[in-house]
Structures are given as structure tokens and as C-alpha cells.
Amino acid sequence: MKFNVPSKTLYTYASAVNKVINSKNALIVLNNFLMSLDGDTLTITGSDVENALTARVPVTEAEGSGSFCIEAKRFVDLLKEIPEQGITVEVDPRGNVRVSYSSGQYDFVAIDGAEYPMFKKDEDDTEPKVFTCPSSTIVRGIENTLFAASTDDYRPLMMGVFFDIKPDQMVFVATDTRKLVKFSDKGVNPGISASCIVPAKPATILRSVFSSDEELTITLTAKSATIENTTFSFNCRFIQGNFPDYNRVIPRNNNLTLTADRLTLLNAVRRVGLFVDPGYGLEKFRITPSEVELKSEDNNLMMSARETVPCSFTGEQLIIGFSAPFLLEMLNTISTQDVVINLSDPGRPGIFRPAEEEDNTELIMLLMPMTVGEF
Questions:
Q1: CA angle 163-166-167, nearest 5°?
Q2: Which of 39, 211, 338, 355 is most buried, taking the most CB atoms under 10 A from its CB?
Q3: What percent of the chain has pLDDT above 90?
């Protein structure tokens, strides 16, 4: 078996597939790529059992067909260092792989492709649900929500992004009980009703691999999804269980509105946040009609910080506390010039929104307050 391919083309596809492979695997064979040659198309597959990503790479001067496994990390590292030029990959009957070009050759020992474990499809008899949508919808949904997903193993249902698919829109939600983010895109029409919880790792892979704006075909079963475009096919398993009712926890009566320049507020939160108690993270806010005063203190080291930021506030005065790291995440995710924060009292969550929504989208961020004894 033999084929030629540009080195950087092969590196681009191989490095993308490598994202799905764990640094440590219970099965040694999962440290490898499964490579299969059929005509002028080379497929590269990586898997961690729960997820599998396959890339289709066009090659030239192909001879023979078949499949073999090759160590992924060393192969990607080699391709990264080879200058842009055509390379030849040859596999002999004994399973030796040679990668060669004008001034060098590198030999690998391959494993029979038949030993590679394939992604198992669902065994139930339910009809899969299929729809299409732009990759930008999936990428934006994940980018706006993934940071809010839980990292607590005791809350497995929250360790991913909830996809709530409706006939006329897609809703993406993530929460860790302290913060919640909901992103709605009404610019798509899936034509089906379905829901699933995509774990953090496959969500991250989706965001990076399908970043170019292409049409995706998505096939949903009870336990997994297959996402495809002309180049990649990605299979991932869902987190099984019922996601919390996110609409019920979003307050509807936050009638006090704070509007401020996002970057000004972001930079102030960042600076004042340098002085918070590391074990608590509390940053205090005293909000008046024309300005918000930020304050933090680390009593262990006898340090404190104060700063004021201009704002517009519809109430008289409100003192409230938030976690500085969580605030930074939300203000960094919003991209508009101004941020709007809807509040009611110091014990109820704040709702963070962009001042202007993109066409057919809505972004809502909920952040639970922290207890403030005195300002």
C-alpha cells in the first residue's frame, strides 16, 4: 500500500483527529490512528471509545488498499516538523510503515487495522432523527455556554452542554448551579424536537474541528450523535439523564437595570479582583444611579482595592456581591460594547445580557450572588 500527500495537508487533518485521543488509554491500540486507504481517499480515525473522529484526506498516486494503525502522537509530531512538501507513505506486507520525502525517511511499526475498536452504534430500534444546520450555529452555541458547565463529578448531568432542539430553533444551556448560560438561535429550523447532553470533551472537539462555516448533517439516536460535513465525521456519546429545567430558574422580575461599558467594567473587575480573598473570591458592588463602586479585600494579608465605574442604574442604591472569576467569564463572553445587568435584590441572581443581540439570537447569563455583610 502506498500514497502521496502534501505534508501540511496531512498534518492539518491528523492534528484535528488527534484531539479525540486521550493522553492515557486503557487500551494501547487507542494511542494510534486507524488509517484506511480506499482509492484516492485516506481516512484517519481516532477514538477514546466514547467518541470517534474520522477525517477524509485526498491523496495521489495511491496503490493498493487496506488499513493499519500508527502511533498518533509521534506521527503528528513528525508531520509538524516536516517542511511543506509532498511525502510518500508506504506500508509493506509485514506491517512496517515508511514516511519519506526528498531528504529523509522515517520508519514506524504498524498494528493491523482489524485490531482497532470501532465506535458502537446504538442497539435500540428507535428511528434516528436527522437534521441539518450551519456549523456556525453549533460553534456559537458551545462558545457561549461551555464555560458554565460543571466540573464536579458529583453532578454528572451538568458536566456538558444541553442541546434543546426545537422545530424552529436551537437552545444551548450549561450550568454548575452557581451560574447558568442560555443561548438561543432562532435562525435555524431543524424541523425536529430532541434534546441531549453533550459532554465537555466532545463539545470542545466540535467547537474546534467544525469551526469553518459549512452545512452539518446531524443524526441523533437515544445515546449518541453523528455530526458530519464533507471532510469530517464525528461520533459522540451523550450524558444520560434529565437536565434541570433551566427556564424555571431564570428570574422574570428583575426590574432594576444596570447598563455599563463592558470593557470598562471588565477591566475594573479584573483589577479589583486581584485583591479578593483567594479562598472566597468575593467582589462587592455598591450601585447608584450614576456609578458602580467595586470593592474587594483580603483580610488575611490586610489588602483591599476600590474602583468606580460610570453606569446607568434604574434603582436608588443596591449593594450586592459576586464571584470575581465568574464575572470575568461572563463579561469576556459578551461581545457588545455595553453590558446590561438585571437585578432585584442582594439575595437573587443577576441576569447578564449583551446590550444588543445578534440577529435571531438571545444570550442570557445568570449568576448567583454571594453574601455581603457590609460594604
A1: 145
A2: 338
A3: 87
DSSP 333-360: H--SSEEEEEE--TTS-EEEEESSPPTT
Say if residues 108 and 71 touch (Cβ distance below 8 Å): yes
* Residue 16, helix vs strand vs coil: helix
If one counts every other C-beta atom within 10 angstroms of the C-beta of residue 279, the result is: 8
Any idea how long the chain is? Answer: 375
The cell for 129 is 432523527
**Farthest CA pair distance, the chain:** 81
Q: Is the separation of the CB atoms in 163 and 131 below 8 Å?
A: no
Residues 339, 260 contacting (CB under 8 angstroms): yes
Task: Report the distance separating Cα 114 and Cα 111, nearest Å.
Answer: 8
Question: pTM of the full predicted structure?
Answer: 0.93
Type of residue at 52: A
- Residue 77 grid coordinates: 509530531
Burial profile 207-219: b = 16 or more Cβ within 10 angstroms, e = fewer: bebbeeeeebebe
Dist CA 307 CA 284 (whole Å): 11
Which residue pairs from 80-88 have beta carbons closer than 8 angstroms and sit at least 24 positions apart in sequence?
A: 80/11, 80/15, 82/7, 82/11, 83/7, 84/6, 84/7, 84/8, 85/6, 85/7, 86/4, 86/5, 86/6, 86/7, 87/4, 87/5, 87/6, 87/7, 87/10, 88/2, 88/3, 88/4
∠ CA 325-195-332, nearest 5°, is 20
Q: Which of 331, 328, 337 is nearest to 352 (CA)?
A: 331
240-278 pLDDT tens trace: 999 999 999 999 889 999 999 999 999 999 999 999 988
Cell matching residue 153 = 463529578
Give dist(CA 30, CA 68) in Å, integer. Answer: 13
pLDDT at 124 over 80: no
Contact residues for 26 (Cβ-Cβ < 8 A; gap 6+): none
Average pLDDT, the chain: 94
Confidence at 332, pLDDT banded by 50, 70, 90: very high
Interval 26-39 mean pLDDT: 94
- Cβ-proximal residues to 70 (8 Å cutoff; 6+ apart), any chain: 32, 33, 35, 97, 108, 110, 111
